[in-house]
Amino acid sequence: MVIKKFSEPSEEIIKEIRKVELICKEHDKLNGSIFLDTSINFNSEIKSLFLLYDSNILVSLVSMFIPTRDEAEISAYTLPKYRRKGYFKKLLHEAIKEITKYNILDLVFVCEPQSNDGNEVIEKLKAEFDFTEYFLRYNDSVDDMEVRPTPEIKLKEAEKEDLESLINLSQEIFNDNYEDAKSMIIKSFESENRIQYIGMIDKKHIGMGSASLGNDEASIFGFGVSPQYQGKGFGRAMLKRILTDLKNRGRENITIEVDSTNKNAFNLYKKCGFKVETSFDYYRKRPDFLFQS
């Protein structure tokens, strides 16, 4: 048994992970996929991927998504015939040792509701349910994007001189602290496969959103409108412009995520043609309370 740790996976490692993922998805009837882009983690040096090999075969893995110091999102797969051997526990111990170096406060475990083995692990960990996140996919054929009359909102790809304005918007919309907002936005600027949008009325910045680009796909995240402009059709108009821009870039497969506590955003996305594809339950636990009897 060998455990390997990475801050950034190679293409070869990603292929190994996707192979394990496919087997687990078929066995457990799962719909989601592990997010393997580590470029948005708050620290580029932090180890966020832990792989366990048996006879040079990848059999178990733990992945962490860590955009801020507040929490690390944990996703995991273990091949069916290698389960209940303590492999996940060994990997989780290694992950906890890593995040302890960076004073990360919480672990958030991601589990699809239909995963019986996943739910069994959550129960053993005594992690507490936090919220459900919905994964939605854009369906152009049911697009209900007729925008109500509003003052003209413009969309542009943000530039580095927009940094402070974007940080202010992030604080207003998402209640992010200054340093976390700054770190995430700078990483979007630096990434080759991300677009950072900003929405404007006249010259006033009122909204923001980002998109992560794949071959023919795109995932929208960090989308929102300043509270004083919410409920007036601006969010809907801005989302339409983002969708149009992504389709013009050749991305027809467009997704977005929203948690169950944000009913306004959830309803907006559904009205704009997004359909729920799957859901993920999130469970929270302090790392220093794990594995205690």
Detailed description of the structure:
- Helix 4 packs across helix 5.
- A 12-stranded mixed β-sheet has the order 1-2-3-4-5-12-6-11-10-9-8-7, sandwiched between helices.
- The longest helix is centred in the N-terminal third of the chain and has 18 residues.
- It contains 7 helices and 12 strands.
- By secondary structure, it is an alpha+beta fold.
- GO terms for molecular function: acyltransferase activity, transferring groups other than amino-acyl groups.
- This is Ribosomal protein S18 acetylase RimI-like enzyme.
Summarize the structure.
The protein has 293 residues and is an alpha+beta fold. The chain has helices at 11-28, 87-100, 116-125, 163-174, 178-190, 234-248, 263-271; strands spanning 2-6, 49-54, 57-68, 71-78, 106-111, 128-138, 154-157, 194-201, 204-213, 217-225, 253-259, 274-285.
| Helical content band | 25-40%
Structural class: alpha+beta
Q: Residue-averaged pLDDT, rounded? A: 92
**Low-pLDDT segments, ≥5 res:** none
Determine the N-to-C terminus distance: 27 Å
Counting DSSP E segments of at least 2 residues, the number of strands comes to 12
The whole-angstrom Rg is: 20 Å
Strand content: 25-35%
Question: What about the largest sheet?
Answer: 12 strands, mixed
Would you give the CATH topology of the largest domain?
Answer: Aminopeptidase
In what order do the strands lie side by side in the largest sheet? 1-2-3-4-5-12-6-11-10-9-8-7
The CATH superfamily of the largest domain is Gcn5-related N-acetyltransferase (GNAT)
Keywords: Acyltransferase, Ribonucleoprotein, Ribosomal protein, Transferase
GO cellular component, one term: ribosome
GO molecular function, one term: acyltransferase activity, transferring groups other than amino-acyl groups
Protein name: Ribosomal protein S18 acetylase RimI-like enzyme
